Amino acid sequence: MEKLKCLVPESLKRRVAESSIDHLPSLSSSLLQYFLSLPQFHQLISELAAQPSTQAGLCAKNKGAALELKLKGNQFYSTGDHSQALRCYSQALRLAPIDAHDTGKNLVATLYLNRASLFHKMGLPMESLRDCSRALEISPSYPKVWYRRGKVNATLGNYEDAVHDLTVAKNMETSIGGKKQIESELEILAQHHENKSAKPVHHSRKRVGIPDVPQQIKLQCVETADKGRGMISQFDIPEGSLIHTEEPYAVVILKQYRETHCHYCLNELPVDTIPCVSCSLPLYCSQHCQMQAGGQIHVNYSSKINIHKKKSNCSEECPDINGGNNCDPKLDHIPEHKHECQGVHWPAILPSDVVLAGRVLVKSMEQKGQFTDVPNLSEILGLCESYSKMLPESKLELHIYSIVLLFCLQCSYSPEMSINGNSTSQIVILLSQIRVNSMAIVRMKSNDFPEQQNWFQKFSSGEADVASSLEQVRVGQALYRAASLFNHSCKPNIHAYYISRSLLLRTTEFVAEGCALELSYGPQVGQWDCKDRLRFLEEEYFFRCWCRGCSKVNASDLVISGFCCVNPNCSGVVLDSLVVNCEKKKPNIPETISNESQVYESDDIDIKKVAHISLDQTHSSLHIDPGYCLKCGSYCNFSSRSEDVKKAWIDLRRLQDSIASKDMCSTRLPDALRSLGLLRSILHAYNKGVAEAEDIVAKAFCFIGDFQPARDHCKSSIEILEMLYGPNHIAIGNELVKLSSIQLAMGDSAAVDNINRAIQSPNITTDQSALLVLKSRVTSDPRNLLATNWSVTTSVCSWIGVTCGSNNIRVTALNLTGMGLAGTIPPDLGNLSFLSSLTIVNNSFQGSLPNQLANLRRLNHVNLGNNKISGDIPSWFGSFTRLRSLYLFGNNFTGLIPSSLCYLPKLEILSLEKNNLQGHIPVRIGNLSTLKILSLDSNMLSGQIPGTIGDLLNLEVLSSRENSLTGPVPSSMGNLTFLSFLDVSYNSLSGTIPFQIGNLQNLEGLLLGRNNFTGFIPPSIFNMSTMRVIWLGFNQLSGQLPPITGRGLPKLEGLYLELNELSGPIPSSISNASKLIFLQLPNNSFSGIVPDTFGNLKDLQSFDIPHNNLSSEPELRFLSSLTNCKDLEVVIFDGNPLISGELPVSVGNLSASVTLFYASHCSIKGRIPREIGNLSQLVWLGLDYNGFTGTIPETLGNLRELQNVNLGSNKLQGSIPSELCHLQRLAYLTLTDNELSGPIPACLGDIVSLRNLFLGLNKFTSIPSTLTRLNGLLFLELSSNSLTGPLPVDIGNWKSVTNLNLSENRFSGVIPSSIAGLMHLTHLSLSDYKGKFRMEDHSGTTRAHHSSAMKTCAVHHNFKSHLAELMIPLGAKLLGEEDSMTQTKTLATIGYMSPEYG
Predict the structure, then answer these.
(1) Mind giving me the DSSP string for 881-938?
(2) Which residues pair with 1062 in a beta bridge?
(3) What domain of life does the UniProt record list for this protein's source (predicted)?
(4) 1012-1015 and 1036-1040 as β-strands: parallel, antiparallel, unpaired?
(5) In angstroms, rounded to a whole number, what is the distance separating the alpha carbons of residues 1161 and 1139?
(6) Where are the alpha helices (DSSP H) in 96-175?
(7) 3-state SS of the chain: helix, strand, coil percent to 5?
(8) Are strands 105-106 and 101-102 parallel, antiparallel or unpaired?
(9) How many angstroms separate the CA atoms of 410 and 1096, rounded?
(10) Is the confidence at residue 205, as pLDDT, over 60?
């Protein structure tokens, strides 16, 4: 651009310098024609608007570079350099084309997967989860992504989601090994979930919504004589009121924050950044922002990825502006990045305000639907311009940039766009409007850590000083059409702040009806002195400010850069000539008072303390002179004092540099302290330079860990700033947070006062200090959620887990669910006086609840579940009259249930389960007329259930299981007609089940098991159409089931009546309960034939009727009937000796899902049908203690999932079929007490999963040596066979065996010495062994022991007395009585894919 400016002839430059708005069309046309004649201009345009196809588009996608970065990322991943791996993966995502593939997979999806794996390894599960979901949106049939997301969901405790994802991965996985591996993961997950009962933890990225605005606040645009257009209120507006919200017409991120902040919402980028789909320039914090920003979509993927998703319409702006959300209904439909998104790099090169002008132009053309002529932007935007007041150099820049921008847009947006003098002049005007009307979108940032590290995190780790300075940094530039109507004041009465890119304006003081509403365009009173403010506003905005801060003499402007009087007893201020000249020009002169001097009293400082300002005789100007004290008139030598100040600042700046470089020599701080003392003696006590110097020294003391002087210097700085800004300014709130953090570090209780004061300041970020105290009490933050997110550099309303209110920006909800935090709850939490919801469930907070929480009278929801909170439940919960839900489950609360809880008028949920509460259920529980859920499980409550429970007429859930309640169930419970779930199991309740239970026609679950109920089951229970689960097991209930059982239970899914004294037949009408899934009737006295109608229960999964007196037809027709149940998994009818006949071949037609078939201790005869081999998912087969004959069917070898086979105590013959050796999951094989013969198959030694092998009481002839391969064997029973020959030499390989019975066989030869290595052996039987035991002692002498000494050696005494002599010479450890062997079932967990390199 500089080259183009140099090429402009002087004649054109003069025309530019002298031009006004009226001259623009002709001037722009002349400049345009000139530039079109320059080859340099055309070269510039070709470079800025280069297309990706020319390989000159610097912002284009690049598959080769992305693949190279992916490879580097994989290498860094392998070496454990996670930060570099993350950098490479993220940059590769930025460059990878959406349609690129690598090794058969979509490259972008693979990169998201790799980064997700990295995040998971780094302990960032939420980021990993989001990346997995992004990969699946692009490539939904990518099994590795489903697997990774399942693992991440398991980490987060999202059990159901984890199971779903892993199941999808298993179904998609093509390799057998991969499928088995995922199945193992699913088994582990199921066991973990069952043991831990983990509740799902869902986290979603929090977006802070825009607060609603009271509709009664109406604003009006008016014309004023001195400031032109401006905004006033039509009503009185209270302090702190939200008066206006607005979305930007156009916004752009500033260049220096493109790598650190989201290009759409302008918030700080998370680690899992999202690039644009089609170019490499922007980065986004979420897919929401990516879609809102828009961008060109590759043609092959436009139907799959919805980047241009539109938001709902907003209301139009009205002439009378309500304090609401001002936006155009068409605006949200226009992607702001689309025209920049073709790989061109002019958006990255041109200045931000020029790029912003391009977005404004494109939006206006899209709204008009005209893509040829540039519309009249002044009419559309209604903004003032400043072209005529600009310097010649700035005017020329506007012309050049306007022409360049139009040609860039013609190339990348609309080839039909006309470029002429009129269109160019429109852009010139637009740029001049942007210069004076655009607003800077700001974020809080720590000066000390520009790399955006969290200050509190650094402080807690000892890496940072406590007194970190905060500043507002400009991250974006935006146009707000309505907000541009608000005029400026250096003492504003409204404050602008941003949530995302949305502008919010809030009053900082009471504003009377008809008064002007003014915000600050730049520095305010107390921040800069008047002369510097005026110069800034004139240079940047081209006007002379006449606000109340610049038109009236005020003490802040006098002292902010003033010197102290040479008279040590005088508090007056001495001004230099520049300040004096500025103050003399202020038109508003102070009024006369009764003494000889004139004074003006400002809002913040009594001016009489620093000056007596004299008027001239005409009362038209101030009579003050530079170098003279404004109070006593003493003169001071400015030149020498100014030099001393400069020298003092040299030492202070050196100290500041040392802190920044973290390298402080021993003399830096003493030198700075001397310089600070010098400044105090020269500058006025309220000079801002002294405050800055105090702050630097405070930081230095924090840096060396000396907190007391740090606190004192920080206090001194704040005292000065309070005088300059006023005590309630937002800047003071930030300083108070800083001071309180120092005080917390040193254990100073005064921190609470400063936190409270910060909370009460109307303009600071609300409740921040109280939450910082909570953060300081957290002793463990394993995922660094608070450490990295709760930062003073961001709004508290954007902190994770924090929600702010609408009209009054205060914290209204705190949700720290499942963050794994440990620590204590501080009393300061009681300062969150607007808090309505408190949720800290699933953490490890401990200690008692502080009484200060009783101040939270607005609470309507409290969830403190699953922590380690102890002590009594506070009675002050009873004062929370708005409370609707109270969850205190899973803690260590003791004592009684406070009766005060019974007086909460709106309580709907009371959850106190899993504590150590004692005593009775309060009789006054019936007062809770709105209660819907009452959960008292797993405590130590005793006594009877009070009859007043029947007064809870809105109750839907009543659960009091696992207590010590006694007595009967009160009949008044029949009044609870809304009750859907009743669980009082695992108590000591007695008596009969009241018939009034039948009145509960909404009941879905009735759980009365594990009590002492007697008598009959009320028949009405079996006529409740809503019932889903009935558990009455483990009682002493008697009588018969009604003949109509099942007919009135159309929704019943589970019927559990085990371990009672029920008798009579099982009613065939049960089959009318068509939804039944679980039928469990074991251990009763049911008799009669098992009905053959159970096949009507199409959803049946568990058929469990063992240990009764049931019988059957010879064909066992009930089994054939069950073949209609296609989801059946469990079939158990053992212990019914009257069930006889032959096992039908139809058993092979049972559901392929059957995993357990147990029919032992019956009277079944005949052969075991070969068809049983069809049950491919069978895990447990029990047919022992029957009368089966014939051979073992070789089809059992097809049941590859079998883990337990018990065919013992039958009359089976023949040999063990070798097909059984295919059962590689088999752990238990029992064939005892049959007539089996032949050698024991050698291939049994290949079933390494075997733990128990029972082959005794058969006719086997030999034991194979391969059996010693079973080194995991625990029980081996081979007694009473015809085994001959020597024992296997490698018998010592059975390292884990505890029971070994080889008795009653025909073994001979020497017992191998390796038997001494069986260190876990507790039972050994070698009776009738024909041979000798030879072992060598340490001297080499052979010692022989005849078998007469080897009779059955039982555990303990016999075993020790017969074998101690044999084993001790070998140094073997002899088992003591306390020794035991624990069998642990282990599942292989193979790393499915880590790292995932795609």
Answers:
(1) TT--EEE--SSEEEEPPPGGGGG-TT--EEE--SSEE-SPPPGGGGG-TT--EEE--S
(2) 1039
(3) Eukaryota
(4) parallel
(5) 9
(6) 107-121, 125-138, 143-156, 159-172
(7) 35, 20, 45
(8) antiparallel
(9) 74
(10) no
Report whether 699 contacts 465 (CB < 8 A): yes
DSSP H or E run through 1237: strand 1235-1238
Q: How many CB atoms lie within 10 A of CB 755?
A: 27
Torsion over CA: 396, 402, 407, 411 (sign): positive
pLDDT of residue 1372: 29
Dist. CA 725–CA 525, nearest whole Å = 7
Q: CB burial class (10 A; 0-12, 13-18, 19+) of residue 1308?
A: middle
Cα–Cα dist 3/65, whole Å: 33
Q: In the prediction, which pLDDT does 665 show? A: 86
Structure tokens at 882: 């708005």
**Residue 560 confidence (pLDDT):** 85
Check if the beta carbon of residue 1097 is closer than 8 Å to that of residue 1073: yes
Give how far Cα 867 sits from Cα of 711, 830, 854, 892, 914, Å: 35, 19, 20, 8, 11
**DSSP E strands, 270-313:** 274-275, 283-284
Look at residue 213 and tell me whether its pLDDT is greater than 60.
no
Q: What is the pLDDT of residue 53?
A: 54
Whether 1393 shows a pLDDT value over 60: the answer reads no
**Coil, helix or strand at residue 629:** strand
**Nearest to 811, CA basis, from 791, 789, 825, 795:** 795
| Pick from 521, 435, 441: nearest CA to 475 | 441
**Size (the chain), residues:** 1398
Query: DSSP secondary-structure letter at 1128?
Result: -
Query: What is the identity of the amino acid at 898?
Result: P
Distance (Å, whole) CA 934 – CA 582: 73
Cα 1369 versus chain centre, distance: 62
* Among 1189, 1237, 1180, residue whose Cα is nearest residue 1210: 1189
DSSP for residue 1192: P
List pLDDT tens digits, range 511-523. Answer: 787 888 888 877 7
Q: Which two tokens stand for residue 691?
A: 């405050």
Distance CA 307, CA 276 (A): 9
> 301: which 2 tokens?
């993927």
Question: How does DSSP assign 1275-1343, residue by residue?
Answer: EEE--SS--EEPPPTTGGG-TT--EEE--SSEEBSPPPGGGGG-TT--EEE-TT-BSEEEEE-TT--EE
Closest to 819 measured CA to CA, from 805, 834, 802 = 802
Give tens-digit pLDDT for 350-401. 999 999 999 999 898 888 888 888 888 888 887 888 888 888 888 898 999 9
Question: Can you list the pairs that 529-536 forms with residues at least 24 positions away whose Cβ atoms lie under 8 Å?
Answer: 529/557, 529/560, 529/561, 529/579, 529/582, 530/490, 530/557, 530/579, 530/582, 530/583, 530/586, 531/578, 531/579, 531/581, 531/582, 533/490, 534/582
Cβ neighbour number for residue 1188 with a 10 Å cutoff: 20
Confidence class for position 806, pLDDT limits 50, 70, 90: low
φ and ψ at residue 1056, rounded to 5 degrees: -120, 110
Taking the model in full, what pTM does it have? 0.55
**What count of Cα atoms within 13 Å lies in the side-chain half-sphere of residue 1335?**
22
Q: What is the mean pLDDT of the segment spanning 804-815?
A: 77
Q: What is the pLDDT of residue 1074?
A: 92
pLDDT at 9: 86
CB atoms within 10 A of CB 271: 14
- Kindly state the tokens that stand for 1190: 């014939």
Distance CA 18, CA 1008 (A): 95
Sort 40 into a burial class: Cβ within 10 Å, 0-12 / 13-18 / 19+. Answer: exposed
**Confidence (pLDDT) at 808:** 56
% of the chain beyond a pLDDT of 90: 43
Q: Are 552 and 586 in contact (CB under 8 A)?
A: yes
The whole-chain average pLDDT of the chain stands at 82
